[in-house]
Design brief:
The complex is a heterodimer. Chain A is an alpha+beta fold. Chain A has helices at about 55-65, 85-95, 95-105, 105-115, and strands at about 10, 15-20, 25-35, 40-45, 75-80. Chain A is globular. By secondary structure, chain B is mostly helical. The chains are: A alpha+beta, B mainly alpha. Chains A and B meet through helix 1 and helix 4 of A and helix 45 of B. Chain B: This is MMS19 nucleotide excision repair protein. Chain B: InterPro entries: ARM-like, ARM-type_fold, MMS19, MMS19_C, MMS19_N. Chain B: It comes from Apteryx owenii.
């Protein structure tokens, strides 16, 4: 039912491709269970040392939280084996309080918002 | 009362005389070197002589603070005593020193300081104070004292010789605070720039400053001092690059830091090197050139960072410029020559491998060096251009050829910088034939990309005066013509047109003699074989090319007749789609008009030739229409007339007032009285009466569009003859005409004139007249829409110039939002009020447009729109919202952002409310909800 929600997140203005165009996010790596109200997104950083991995994950998460009904539990993590700091990034993204704290930081929020509005 | 109380000492009331001792007995008991002249003895005894250093310190602090307030009132003798006292106190307990320094700082600002005292103070400080063990503020005080003395006692300080420099080196050695460093660097720079003696201490001075290089400083968060890393970098660079004397120490340091892993260190080194090159000579560089070159080359070849590459190229450019500048004596080696030899040796062979990755870095290095001076340019071009020509022939693939040609382009563009080729000792001239043959081969290659580079090279070659010979030029024109007319790819043909446009002013004769006639023939020949019509695109290209090449006044005189001739032929033709042909010619005419605007002579020629001709053709067509109404006339169709408007407008906006007056004295009588005598071919079957009534004259009335284009584009100071009569006629036409095009045009023309009309009784009368006609028209009758259009345009004209009547008219418009029939049109009218209009009422046609009119309109009318919305019935509510959204849409973003907080209280509520439809069962609803909710999250948030 909700698979129509595209993850239209741009990474930066000088590189104006969406994550879908960069194959960072692919439809096969998105699992939606409407009955159990869960959404799981695996994303694949472009290179194993991609310094933007956390920001990308955070942007995806924020976009989903804003776009999905509240009943959904959103899980965003790195495709296994595709990033050097996979575990650390996943832990950060799974930690509700850290995500909330990150969005309190106006600088970080600015960057995330830029990602989310790049193409709209 | 405590001993230090200033009121007791009478500080408030008796400044300078306070220092003169009133003769109390106890004064004599304090030795003179321990107390200042006239210092009240009770205070002296209680504080300055106190055995407790803290109390002593407080006494001196009080004295210093007083001095800081009133140093300008002191007299020379007083200053002398105070200086002696303070110098002596420098030997006191360390707790006292900060206050002593404050006092000395106050004294260092005294204008009456006797000669010799500045040196004496500095010597005392250098000798007695270990500056770096003081606190930041106290160290800063020392720097301030030195800065003050350097500003006012330069000669005196210089008498100290290198001792002063040495003293200062000891003062700043070990300084760590960025605030102090900024001052200290400034002092060092002044030492060097103002030629203080450095003596044997050059290396020490270098060490004490270069130890900070490269600057690594991140300001603490929320730093109140606001010192940025960049401030320190620039002020240290100003020191390091201030003298060639540092070169032998600095250059090895820079070479070492270029090798650093830190990109910031690399960049800083490169920028510092470039700065040094501005003052260095061959002598300083000689020893280091090989290592400098190898570091620069390594960075450009290896780096992935554009920034590093750019800075390397800038440094190489500066280095080459520096070597070029040096004057050679006959017995020294020419370093420039050997330096360029090594650059060529290391880069040249890479140019032969257009597929390899070092080809562009090498080309960029060579170009950076070649761009430094005429000499470097010659030296490198002489070596590289023949090589590239040879490589072009060796590599048959068009992608490789393109790379080679692009490199060649870069080198030729550098030639452009140095002007005439004749002075070029024929280095390039001798290559004319092979260069031309390469360029022509590229232009005939099937690859569009190669063609495009070829065209760019050709443009550069053409701008090198004297390079292309007359036979070459004929070939150039032929190649361009071929691309323009027959190349399938529109990119190439457009590039060829632009190239023709930029070469035409350099070689006007060959373009007017060879290109224009050919284009004219093509246009015509196509017409003659009517049966097998060539594609319309060919005709289109001829028209575009004629416009593009009209960049010189002599060419304009050739192309305009061709274009007008073509327009006449189109007008006579009877095929469908004629109006589109008229539009095409008009687009070309418009471009020529814009190109003529800056040249008064071309501008007047254009106006005189084109405007009467267009008017004559239109009038002729309109009369034929009146007599034979069934013959459709392309020229009279709305889109054709609309295309003629910008042509006439662009031909009129830049006229001088005298010429405009001359022209307006013909055009206005044409429309008011049918005065056709100034038109070419003016024998018409009947009279021209566009403002007369009658069905048969409908076609004539449409020509008001041309009147509008002319009369609304004139400079504001041009007097329009019979303006009142003209305005009345336009007013009548706009309210009564059944044809929407004509009515709207008349309304726009009226508005355009009213906007520029000087304020006063006349204007008020004509506006009253307009209101009187509009009001009944709006109320009822067959012409309600026309009346609304007039209201909109007149309101716009007045809103733009802040006319007092504008608010009344706007209110009328707001009222109409509630009208069931006119409401939606009135709502869209707000867009018309706020947007820039393309043909009238904009700055380009000299309209009176106040810069803040949109803000003002917003402030005045948004509350009314909101109020109207709340009070409106359900069927017309949407009109108010639409009006509001038009106003908001055109508001400058900064204004909108400041107004947004008034909307933000609803943000949280809206976001909450939008959560529900996210889960709606209809997909479309979910989609819109996601989009809207996302937007609301971003509203007023950072990063938007």
């Amino acid at each position: 039912k909700v698979t129509g929600v595209g993850v239209g997140v741009g990474v930066n203005a000088s590189h104006p491709l969406t994550l879908e165009e960069l194959n960072v996010v692919e439809q096969v790596r998105v699992k939606v269970n409407d009955a159990e109200s869960t959404v799981a997104v695996e994303f694949t950083p472009t290179i194993p040392h991609c310094s933007m991995a956390t920001l990308i994950g955070l942007s995806i998460k924020v976009k989903l939280i804003r776009s999905l009904p509240e009943r959904f539990k959103v899980d965003v993590h790195i495709t296994p084996g595709t990033h050097a700091s996979e575990h650390a990034v996943n832990k950060q993204l799974a930690d509700k309080e850290r995500v909330a704290a990150a969005l309190e930081n106006s600088h970080l929020l600015e960057v995330v918002n830029q990602c989310l509005s790049a193409r709209s | 009362m405590p001993a230090g109380d200033p009121s007791r000492a009478g500080l408030c009331h008796r400044p300078p005389s306070f220092w003169v001792c009133s003769g109390c007995i106890s004064c004599s008991s304090v030795p003179a070197h321990k107390r200042p002249f006239g210092f009240p003895s009770w205070l002296a005894r209680s504080c300055l002589e106190n055995t407790d250093p803290r109390t002593r310190g407080r006494g001196i602090q009080l004295l210093s603070q007083v001095l800081l307030q009133c140093y300008s009132l002191l007299q020379e003798k007083e200053v002398l005593h105070l200086v002696l006292f303070y110098e002596n106190r420098l030997q006191d307990h360390h707790l006292v020193i900060p206050s002593v320094l404050q006092g000395l700082r106050a004294l260092s600002m005294c204008e009456v300081l006797a000669p010799g005292l500045a040196v004496s103070v500095l010597k005392a400080i250098f000798q007695e104070v270990h500056v770096q063990s003081l606190l930041q503020l106290d160290r800063h005080t020392v720097y301030s004292i030195i800065t003050n003395f350097m500003g006012t006692r330069e000669e005196e300080l210089k008498s100290l010789g290198a001792d002063f420099t040495f003293g200062f080196i000891q003062v700043m050695d070990g300084e760590k605070d960025p605030r102090n460093l900024l001052v200290a660097f400034q002092i060092v720079r002044d030492l060097i720039v103002k030629n203080y003696a450095l003596g044997p201490f050059v290396e020490e001075l270098f060490e004490v400053t270069s130890c900070y290089f490269p600057i690594d400083f991140t300001p603490p968060p929320n730093d109140p001092h606001g010192i940025q890393r960049e401030d320190l970098i620039l002020s240290l660079r100003a020191v390091l690059a201030s003298t060639p004397q540092f070169a032998e120490f600095l250059l090895p340091l820079l070479i070492e830091k270029m090798d650093s892993d830190l990109q910031s260190a690399k960049l800083d080194s490169l920028q510092t090197l470039a700065a040094c090159c501005a003052i260095y000579r061959q002598k300083e560089l000689q020893e280091f050139l090989p290592s400098l070159w190898s570091s620069l080359r390594r960075e450009v070849f290896q780096t992935a960072s554009e920034k590093v590459e750019a800075e390397c190229l800038a440094a190489l450019h500066a280095l080459s410029a520096c070597l070029s500048r040096s004057v050679l004596s006959s017995d020294t080696e020419d370093l420039l020559d050997s330096f360029l030899s090594s650059v060529l040796q290391d880069c040249r062979h890479h140019l032969c491998e257009p597929d390899m990755k070092l080809v562009w870095p090498s080309a960029k290095l060579l170009q950076a060096a070649a761009g430094a001076s005429l000499r470097t340019c010659h030296r490198i071009t002489r070596s590289v251009v023949p090589l590239l020509l040879e490589q072009y022939t060796k590599h048959p693939q068009s992608s490789q050829r393109r790379t080679i040609l692009e490199m060649l382009l870069g080198f030729l563009e550098l030639q452009q910088k140095w002007g005439h080729v004749e002075e070029d000792e024929s280095a390039l001239l001798s290559l004319r034939a092979p260069v031309c043959s390469v360029v022509f081969s590229a232009m005939t290659d099937p690859s569009v990309q190669l063609q495009l580079v070829g065209i760019r090279v050709l443009t550069v070659l053409g701008s090198l005066q004297g390079f292309l010979s007359p036979p070459d030029l004929e070939l150039v024109v032929d190649h361009l013509l071929r691309l323009i007319l027959h190349e399938e790819d529109s990119q190439s043909s457009e590039a060829a047109m632009e190239a023709a446009g930029s070469l035409a002013p350099i070689y006007p004769q060959i373009f007017s003699g060879r290109m224009v006639p050919r284009l004219g023939e093509e246009l015509q020949s196509e017409r003659e074989e009517e049966g097998s019509r060539a594609p319309r695109s060919l005709q289109q290209r001829c028209l575009q090319a004629l416009a593009a090449v009209s960049t010189h006044t002599s060419i304009v005189r050739e192309t305009i007749p061709v274009l007008l001739q073509h327009l006449r032929r189109v007008q006579k033709g009877s095929e469908a789609g004629n109006a589109q042909d008229v539009v095409s010619v008009c687009q070309s005419l418009h471009r020529v008009a814009l190109q003529c605007q800056q040249d008064a002579e071309s501008c007047w020629y254009y106006h005189q030739t084109v405007v009467p001709c267009l008017l004559a053709m239109a009038v002729q067509a309109a009369m034929q229409e009146s007599t034979h109404p069934l013959q459709g006339k392309a020229l009279l169709e709305e889109e054709a007339l609309a295309a003629m408007v910008p042509v006439i407008s662009a031909a009129s906006t830049h006229l001088s007032p005298e010429l405009a007056a001359q022209s307006v004295s013909h055009v206005v009588p044409l429309f008011l009285d049918g005065e056709v005598s100034f038109l070419p071919q003016n024998s018409f079957p009947c009279s021209f009466q566009p403002f007369e009534g009658g069905e048969r004259l409908e076609a004539q009335r449409r020509l008001v569009a041309l009147l509008m284009a002319f009369v609304c584009s004139l400079p504001r100071n041009v007097v329009i003859p019979q303006q009142e009569r003209l305005l009345r006629e336009l007013l009548a036409l706009s309210c009564s005409c059944n044809c929407p095009f004509t009515a709207t045009t008349a309304a726009k023309c009226f508005a355009g004139l009213v906007n520029k009309h000087p304020a006063g009784q006349q204007l008020d009368e004509i506006l009253q007249l307009a209101v009187n006609r509009m009001e009944p028209g709006l109320a009822e009758g067959p012409h309600r829409t026309q009346a609304l259009t007039l209201l909109l345009w007149v309101t716009k004209a007045l809103v733009l110039r802040y006319h007092p009547l504008s608010s009344r008219l706007t209110d009328k418009l707001l009222g109409l939002l509630g009208d069931a029939e006119l409401g939606p049109v009135a709502a869209d009218g707000f867009s018309l009020l706020m947007a820039d209009s393309p043909d009238v009422l904009h700055k380009g046609c000299h309209a009176d447009v106040r810069i803040m009119f949109r803000q003002r309109f917003f402030t005045d009318n948004v509350p009314k729109l909101v109020q109207g919305f709340h009070g409106a019935g359900p069927d017309v509510k949407a009109n108010y919202l639409k009006g509001l959204s038009h106003v908001l849409n055109h508001l400058p973003k900064p204004v909108l952002v400041t107004e947004l907080p008034t909307l933000l209280p609803y943000k949280a509520r809206v976001i909450r409310a939008l959560a529900k439809p996210l889960d709606d069962k209809k997909r479309l609803v979910r989609k819109e909800a996601v989009a809207a909710r996302g937007e609301w999250f971003l509203l007023g948030s950072p990063g938007r």
